[in-house]
Design a protein that fits this description.
Shape of chain B: globular
Distance between the termini of chain A: 36 Å
Structural class of chain B: alpha+beta
Radius of gyration of chain B: 18 Å
Oligomer: heterodimer
Helix content of chain B: 25-40%
Strand order of the largest sheet of chain A: 1-2-3-5-4
Strand content of chain A: 35-45%
Largest sheet of chain B: 4 strands, antiparallel
Strand order of the largest sheet of chain B: 1-9-6-4
Number of helices of chain B: 5
Helix content of chain A: 10-25%
CATH superfamily of chain A: Nucleic acid-binding proteins
Radius of gyration of chain A: 13 Å
Strand content of chain B: 15-25%
CATH class of chain A: Mainly Beta
Number of helices of chain A: 1
């Protein structure tokens, strides 16, 4: 990992640690998932890959990914330095939380 | 005996031999009956009346121009070189092409900072590809890369998947076609 990557990781991991709940707006939609502009920092590239988009707990086909402009609630699950993205998961919300 | 009958007998015999060899191979590798490309090399002509095609999927060191036969499933590589398996779930509509022809750099456009980042995402762990296959519905394609090639060219791209014990391998589009000479197995 380059020092630049390490700096990026330090910054994003502090602002959006794994497990953090975030909100964001779907900006782009592809068969593999959607890109999300985070409300707290729209410059961060965040992605919900299709295997991590299971709002009802079940896998969805690409047609069922959320449309551009939809607001999402998600959980941070990873930070990938090789493409500088924050990975998110959308899963059923536990009513007890 | 009529010539036509002789040809038919020859074709049936060849089919039986190919099937027996395939069963033996599947039993020895524990993979079961699956679709394979880049597996069986024959030095002769193709079998009359059987589904066959000349695949670009030639194994390293094999005689260029030899004909490959696909008869449901084929024989695994006869050489004993250790391989590393990479798994990928084809996006809808791409499974047959990627299985038969391999991967094209054009299928993975883009670059750093763009939505499509110019990377072809493979997995060392089939379970990762299975998760995507649940959504794409076209199964998983396994590519068996000789370990020496993998370690010299692709291991550098390994990354811990979602920070856990599983490994993904995001391969730059410019390097993805280098996987095409190697055996592919389509797990439905």
């Amino acid at each position: 990992m380059t020092s630049s990557d390490a700096d990026w990781l330090d910054g994003v991991a502090e602002a959006f640690p794994v497990g953090a709940r975030v909100r964001g707006l779907v900006q782009a939609r592809h068969p593999f998932g959607v890109f999300v502009a985070l409300d707290d920092d729209p410059d961060i590239r965040a992605i919900v890959e299709i295997n991590n988009y299971r709002p009802d707990g079940e896998p969805v086909s690409p047609e069922r990914l959320p449309e551009i402009g939809v607001h999402l609630q998600a959980v941070v699950i990873d930070h990938t330095t090789f493409n500088r993205q924050v990975r998110l998961r959308v899963a059923p919300i536990d009513a007890s939380e | 005996m009529p010539r036509r009958l002789l040809l038919l007998l020859a074709a049936l015999t060849a089919l039986a031999l190919a099937s027996l060899a395939g069963i033996a191979s599947a039993a020895s590798t524990g993979t079961g009956a699956q679709n394979r490309v880049g597996a069986l090399q024959t030095s002769g002509a193709s079998f009359v009346g059987l589904a066959s095609f000349e695949s670009p999927c030639l194994r390293p060191g094999s005689a260029a121009g030899s004909v490959q036969i696909v008869v449901g499933f084929c024989v695994a590589a006869e050489d004993a070189e250790d391989t590393v398996s990479l798994f990928k779930a084809p996006q809808p509509g791409r499974g047959a092409s990627q299985f038969e022809n391999g991967y094209s750099a054009a299928d993975f456009p883009g670059g750093p900072g763009q939505d499509s980042d110019g990377l072809a995402y493979f997995a060392r762990d089939k379970s990762i590809a299975d998760e995507f296959a649940d959504s794409y519905g076209e199964g998983v394609i396994e590519t068996k890369v000789p370990r020496s090639v993998y370690e010299s060219q692709y291991a550098q791209f390994e990354y811990p998947y979602q920070g856990g014990p599983r490994t993904e391998v995001p391969i730059p589009a410019s390097a993805v076609e280098g996987l095409n000479p190697f055996e592919r197995i389509w797990h439905p």
